[in-house]
Amino acid sequence: MASSMVNVFGARVSYNPSPMKGVITRSVSTTTRANSVSIRAEAINPDIRKTEDKVVDAVVVTELSKPLTAYCRCWRSGTFPLCDGGHVKHNKATGDNVGPLLLKKPKE
């Protein structure tokens, strides 16, 4: 469920896709005063496989039209739900290690 609070001076949006334990909550705060905007980026992967440079999972699916399809898991993609590499900039800005979900067609 998404929740938001908007007033004259700013906005705060919180997102939590599931109430289940271990699911990541993401918050973005935006404050507007006069003509300036301040955005605070936060990591969206606080504890999953943090020893890896980038968390990427691959799933083999036999009924795909393309040999490889990358799906966004960082919510930064301009082509959401498909990955456009937006996680690279996010990871550099926050020190996060989120990466895409890869759906692969098995080799014949």
Automatic annotation (TrEMBL):
One of its GO terms (molecular function) is 2 iron, 2 sulfur cluster binding. Its cofactor is [2Fe-2S] cluster. Pfam families: zf-CDGSH. Residues 54-93 form the Iron-binding zinc finger CDGSH type domain. It comes from Papaver somniferum (Opium poppy). Keywords: 2Fe-2S, Iron, Iron-sulfur, Metal-binding. SMART domains: ZnF_CDGSH. It comes from the Eukaryota. The keyword rRNA processing does not apply. Signal peptide: none annotated. The lineage of its organism: Eukaryota, Viridiplantae, Streptophyta, Embryophyta, Tracheophyta. GO terms for biological process: regulation of autophagy. GO terms for cellular component: mitochondrial outer membrane. This is Iron-binding zinc finger CDGSH type domain-containing protein. InterPro entries: CISD1/2, FeS-contain_CDGSH-typ, MitoNEET_CISD. PANTHER family: CDGSH IRON-SULFUR DOMAIN-CONTAINING PROTEIN 1.
